[in-house]
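Sat 14:20. Reprocessing the chain from the morning session after the first attempt stalled halfway. Input below, unchanged.
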Amino acid sequence: MKLFLIVIFLLHSAQSFAQGNYEEINKRRNHIQYINNPETVFDLNNLPICSNYGCSKISNASISSETLEVINNTLVMSIESPASEREALANVIGIIEKVIGEQTNTQHDIAGTFHTYFQFNKNKSEQMDCVDESANTLLYLRMLDKMNKIIWHEIVGLSTRGGIFAGYPHTAVLLKEKQNQEKFIIDSWFHDNAQPAEVVSYKKWKKGWKPEKK
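Finished this time. Tokens:
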């Protein structure tokens, strides 16, 4: 009888864990879909920010009128050309990350995913992986697009690479130039929090591109 009860308990625990895990995965999936939807209108006072690997934690943050002014000033150069807009957007991602990091305890996030294990001060704030980084970058770009701040590009959504030549699975945000339909990736995962994102041709990125070490 006692053995029977133990088996029942273990089965129930496993079922509860599986159910909880499924609900958590479903919650993350719904959140990414919400961000990826071009029709979503974001509240600047209540932005859902991903962190803690795989968007396992969602924190609320806001963007002030002062920060919006800095963003607008940075995007002034976007008017010149698609290339200047890509450069401006890369800088804006860094600006927003700094403001958001201080509100969500991600201000000390370091480049990549696994490097944190070799940092002595790794517990100073939460770390983000490429899922967190790409979801947040997509949110920022969707937000700017809704505010009519992006002129030359369409925000396509998330793009994933991986395989024999591209290495570990990795996700970033895909842009498409409106005039010639050329595709670009904007990727904030390669650098520490508050640094400008990388912008690179989609074809090059898809093959496993990463920035050269300085």
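The chain has five helices and six strands.
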